[in-house]
Amino acid sequence: MTGPAGVRHSLPYTANLSILFTELPLLERAQAARAAGFTAVEYWWPFDGADPRPVEVEKFVRSIEQAGVRLTGLNLFAGDMAAGERGLVSWVGREAEFAVSLTIAIGIAERLGCRSFNALYGNRLDGVDPAEQDALALEHLATAASSAEKIGAQIVLEPLSGTPAYPLKTAADAVAVADKLGLDNVRLLADLYHLAVNGDDLDSVIAEYTPRTGHVQIADAPGRHQPGTGELDLEGHLEKLAAAGYRGHVGIEYKPDGPTLESLAWLPEERRGNE
Fold first, then answer.
1. What is the number of helices (H) and of strands (E) in the chain?
2. Is 85's pLDDT higher than 90?
3. Helices (H), ranges, the chain
4. pLDDT for position 265
5. Could you report the per-residue pLDDT of 144-179, keeping only the tens digit for each?
6. Catalytic position from the list 42, 85, 158, 239
7. CA-CA distance, 269 to 251, in Å (whole number)?
């Protein structure tokens, strides 16, 4: 799937506005992304808590609608990310927060057309049996998958790096959880940065798990900055994903080395819009 000279795939991109355009307040980022040429965006959980006020939800929805972009992905509430928390799926004692954030996320998705939800698994907890956490995770994921299925959406499971207490580190770890559920709409989120940093061989992951992959995200490694700042052949890996049958979006989820607009020089403006 090779296009113009130097372009080795035609997969569509979506801009992660929880990590891009952070020079601006969150509610102004969708407009900035549209001005930069993007037509699709994704976010981590965009609120401070699991149960934002309706007015906060409305402002978020309107910021996307008014920008004229499509929401392609949304994380469920993952706790205090800045403090190191990485999801509530397996967090015993925070079931109510998980449930309310799921309801809110589904409601946002119904309005904006989003059909993919990232359910971060959650860190291992001191003093809690991992088996108890895993049982709760399967319960929560089954509930989330059922809610998502009603609107034709999927749940994706993301291996993460940089957080030793987070148990999903490789593509195989995430797929193993999905296998226990046996649900078609629970799939792998292949963040090529996290997988590479954790030691997964990306070519092997692509060869084995592309049929199980619901979403892809990119950043270069080391550093987690834009393509070209590290050692990964991201264009080549995306070409292989496309050749293996992946047709979803590619989430641009890196920490810009410099201003966001300057960091996007690797991606010509004509390749940013795809809807």
1. 9, 8
2. yes
3. 29-35, 54-67, 95-112, 130-149, 171-181, 192-197, 202-209, 234-243, 260-263
4. 97
5. 999 999 999 999 999 999 999 999 999 999 999 999
6. 158
7. 16
Nearest alpha-carbon partner for 159 in 201, 199, 190:
190
> What whole-number percentage of the chain has pLDDT above 70?
97
The span from the CA of 57 to the CA of 111, in Å, is 11
Helix then strand then coil, % of the chain, to nearest 5 = 40, 15, 45
Instruction: Specify whether 253 is catalytic.
Output: yes
Q: Which two tokens stand for residue 61?
A: 């929805």
Q: Which is the catalytic residue, given 42, 85, 239, 253? A: 253
Q: Mean pLDDT across the chain, nearest whole number? A: 96
Q: Identify whether 158 is a catalytic site residue.
A: yes
Cβ contact 31:63 at 8 Å: yes
pTM over 0.85, yes/no: yes
Neighbouring residues of 49: CB distance < 8 A, sequence distance ≥ 6: 77, 97
